[in-house]
Amino acid sequence: MAGKKANKIPKTTIVQAGPKTSSKTVDKKRITEVTEKKSQRSRKTQKTVRSKPTAQGVSAALYDINGQSLGKVVLPKEIFGQKPNKNLLVQAMRIYSSNQSAHWAQTKTRAEVRGGGAKPRRQKGSGKARAGSIRSPLWVGGGVALGPKYRKIKLTLPKKMKKKALVFALSSKAQAGDIKVIKNIENIQAKTKIVAGLLNKLKTKDNTLLVISDKSNDQKNLILASRNIKQISVSRVNNLNAFEIVKSNNLLFSKEALAALVGEKPVKQL
C-alpha cells in the first residue's frame, strides 16, 4: 500500500554499565560499622567502670562485756566472704532437720496382737458376719491396719559439702551484718544479768547463737550465766554447723572462738 507510511522503529542504544552494587552488601557494611562503634564505646566504658580492688576480708564489730564498741575485726575472706550457694544450704538444712526428728511411733498388726488364734464362731448359721479372728482390725482390741512403724532414718552429707555449707552459712551472716565479736566474754562470772545486759545493749532480738572456744573448764560460768535466757544458745566451735547458724538471727563470737575458727591466720583489729 503506497499511501500509508511505514512506522519507523527507534534505534536502541546500548549503554555499558559498571558492576552493580546490591543493597545487601551496603546493608552489611552499615551493620559492621555500627557494631564496631558500639564495641569501641563499650570498651571505653569498661575501662572507666573498673575500680581498684578493695581490702580482702569482711569486717565485724567488736564489743566488750559491757556492750561498748572497741572497733572492728577483719574476718578472713576464705570463710566469711564467699558467695552463698542457696541450693547447698537448703539441702544441708533438710538433712539436719530430718536427722533430728525421730520416728518412734509404732503400732501392732493383727499378727502381732496376743490372742485371736481360734475362729470366734462357726462360718454359717449364726446370722452374724463371718469372722476368722478376734484380733481383726475391724474388731475392738484388734490390730491396726497400715499403722506407723519405727523407722531409723539417717541422711548424711559428704565432708566437703558439709564444710562448704558451713562456710556459705557464715558468709551469708557476715554479708547481712549479723556477726558480732565479744572480747573477754568467756571469763565472766556466773550471773545471768551480765549476759542479759549485754544482749540489751547490743539490741539483739529473737534467736542468738553464742559461739565459744573448745576449752573444757573455762566456760562453765558462761554456760551457767546464759542457760536461763530463752533467746540465746551456746555452742562450741567444733560443734558448729550450718543448721544452727541459719536458724539463728544473730551470731556472737568470742574472740577466742574466732581465733580457733580462723586457725593459723591471726585476727586483725581495725
Automatic annotation (TrEMBL):
One of the primary rRNA binding proteins, this protein initially binds near the 5'-end of the 23S rRNA. It is important during the early stages of 50S assembly. It makes multiple contacts with different domains of the 23S rRNA in the assembled 50S subunit and ribosome. Forms part of the polypeptide exit tunnel. Residues 40-50 have a biased composition (Basic residues). GO terms for molecular function: rRNA binding; structural constituent of ribosome. Transmembrane segments: none annotated. It comes from Candidatus Curtissbacteria bacterium GW2011_GWA2_41_24. Keywords: Ribonucleoprotein, Ribosomal protein, RNA-binding, rRNA-binding. PANTHER family: 50S RIBOSOMAL PROTEIN L4, LARGE RIBOSOMAL SUBUNIT PROTEIN UL4M. Part of the 50S ribosomal subunit. Residues 25-39 have a biased composition (Basic and acidic residues). The keyword Coiled coil does not apply. This is Large ribosomal subunit protein uL4. InterPro entries: Ribosomal_uL4, Ribosomal_uL4-like, Ribosomal_uL4_dom_sf. Belongs to the universal ribosomal protein uL4 family. Gene3D superfamilies: 3.40.1370.10. Residues 1-55, 101-132 are annotated as: Disordered. Residues 13-24 have a biased composition (Polar residues). One of its GO terms (cellular component) is ribonucleoprotein complex. One of its GO terms (biological process) is translation.
